[in-house]
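Pasting as-is:
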Amino acid sequence: MECRPYRRGLARATRFQAFAVRERFGGSRDERTLLSCGGARSRPVVKESSRTKLESFQLSEVARTYQKRPERILLSRYYLLVAVCVLTGCSTSFAQTNAFIRVNQVGYLAPDTKIGIAFSKTPLGGEFVLKDTSNRVVFRGPLKSVPRQNWGGTFPYYYGLDFSTYQQPGRTVLHLEESGATSREFSIGVYPPYQDDLLLFMRQQRCGYNPYLDMVCHMRDGRTVYAPVYDGSFMDASGGWHDAGDQLKYLITASNATARMLLSFELARDKFKDSVDGLGRPLPNGIPDVLDEAKWGLDWIHKLHPAPDQLFHQVGDDRDHRGFKLPDQDIADYGWGPNSYRPVYFANGKPQGLREWKSKATGVANIAGRSAAAMAIAYRIWKNDLRDSLFAQKSLKAALELYELGKQFEGYQQGNSYGAPYRYNEDTWADDMEWAAAELFKATGKRSYLADAKRYARIIGQASWMEHDTAEHYQFYPFMNVGHFALHPLVDKKTKAQLAGYYRDGIENVIRRGRQNPYQVGVPFLWCSNNLVVAFITQVLLYERMTGDMRYHAAMLAHRDWLFGRNPWGTSMFTGIPEHGEFPEDVHLPIVQILKKLVPGGLVDGPIATRTYNSLRGLRLSQPDEFAEFQTAEIVYHDDVGDYSTNEPTMDGTADAILMMALWSRSVDRRHAANVQSAAFNDDEGSDYPVIELQKISSGVYRR
C-alpha cells in the first residue's frame, strides 16, 4: 500500500529507494506503510526533527503506532536496507516503479460506482485484483485502457480499474498483478462523519473568541470606511471567521458559509451531533454543532447590519499579509498601530479601494440577498426547531430589511484590495436575491416574494462558471445557485422543469469537459478549483432531490473521488482526511506553520492551471516539489506552504463541503444528537403559506 507522509523521519531517502526496499525485501504491512510505496511521496527536506514533527501534529493511528517505537530503530533498519540494496546492485531503473494506482482513499459506499485509475510510462497488461486485509483476492478484473488526454503529463498510458460490482464491506487494496503496483488501503461500506472535522476547522477559523486556540483576537474591529458617518468612526465588527490563512473577514464569503450550514442542517439534520456549546467549547448544549457554527455567522451578520439601510461587508484588507501570525498577535498596522483597529468597509454599491486597485461594484444585492436568505432560514429553524422566538424574530426582521436593501441597490459588491490587484470579483447577484425571496415566501406567505423569486430565477437562468473554461477569481460566486433548489418546491410544474433544466445544463457542461481527461473531472482549473468540484457535487445532489433523475450520479462520484485521492498526485484535498491517507500537511495556515498543529477538515484551494500559477505574485516553493513526477503541463498542485494558490485551506470552501459530507455519512448515535424538533414545508403553490408551520413534506426536496 502507499505510504503516509509520516515518513518525514526517513528524510532524504527517495521514493524509488524506498520502493526498491519494499519490493526486494518485503516487510510487514505497517513497515511498508512507513517506508515506502508505489508512487507515494517522500519529503526531501525536514525542517525539524522527526520526533518533534510527529509529536506536534494530530497523529493518525498509523503514526501513533510508530510513535511508540524508538524512531532511531526504524531509521537504522531503513538505512541498513537501503545499504543492502546498494550493495546488491539495486539500480534506479530497478527501483523506479512503472505504474501507479489512484483511488478514493476514504472509500466507497457499497452501491457506488468504484473505478480506480492506473497510469504508467509504458503499456500495462494483465489484470488487477482487489485484496482484503488478509491479502486474500476477493475480486479480479481487466485493465481497461482509457484513451484520454493527460494534461501533458509524463504518463501516457491510463487504465480504469472497475470493481463496482464488489459491495462487501471492509478494508481493501487494489493490486496490479503484472507490474506489482498497489494502491492505498481504502474502505467499502459506510462513510465516517467527516462533517464533524469540517466543523472543527470552522471553529479554529473563528475571530473574536477562538475555541481551538482558547484566545481572544481582533476585539478592536473596527473603524469605518465609506460609511454614512465620519471615516474612522468605531463600530463593533468583532466575530465572524478569518477567511483563510490570512485574517481578513468578508461578508461575501461568510454570508454564503452561514446560509450553507443552515441548509446542511435542514437537509441532513440527523447527521449532526452535539458536542460543543455556542462558544465552541466541549460542552454539549442541546443544539447541533452545525447550528452553533451557523449562529456564529448569523451574529456577525447582525453586527454588520446595524441599521435597516446599512450593511458593512469587509474587515481589513491585504495590508494584513505580513507573514504568518497568530490572530491575537496581529502585526498588521492599518494606521492605528499593530494589533489594533482595522478598517470596516461599508457596502455602498460603488467601486472601492483606498489605493490604485479599485473594485467594480455596482450594488449590494449579492451580499444583501445571501444574508437575507440566511436570516430567513434562521427564522424558521430558531422558531420551529430550537423554539427561540426572540432570535427567530430578530432574524426575520433582518431578513426583511436586507432583502429590501438588495432590491433598492440591485447589483454586486466586490471585495476590496489595497496593495495588490487580488480581490473577490463576484459579478452575479440575481441568484442570491432568488434564494432570499424564496426563503422569505416560506417565512411570510407573501406571494410578492414568490413572484420576485421567479423573476430573479429568470434573470440568472443557468449563468455559472460551468459554462466557461475560465473566469475571474470568484466571479460566479457562490459557485452554485441554491436559489433554484429553494424555489423548486414552491412553483408549478412548468417552472419546476425550467429550474431543473438550469441545473442540468450546467451539469452536462461539466461532464462534457470531463471527457477530455482520464479522471473525468470537468471543472476549469481556476484559483480555488476544489470549491468548483464541491459545487458540482452539490448541484448534482440537489438536482437528484429535485427530480429523482440519477443519470449524473456516476459523474458526481468521479468528482468526489478526485477530492479524496483519485487524482494525479494521489492526495486528498482535505487536511487530515482520511487520517491514514495522503493529505495536505504543509498548508498555508498560521496554526500549522507556527504551532505545528495540523487542523483536520480544511478544504485546500486545489490544483490550478499552470499558466495561472505562473502569473501569480509571491509564489515560491519552500521545499523541492515532492509531486514533481506527477505534475502536468496543464495543471499543478503543491503541498507546500509557499504555494498559497493551491495549498491554502479556505473557510467558505470548507463550509460548502459540509452538506455533501453529511449526506454521505450515516446518522449520528442518538446519544450524541441534539434534541430538536422537525420542520417541514409545503409543495403546493396554491396554498397561502401561513408563516410556514405546515407539516406536508415536499416530494423529496426536504426529505430527511
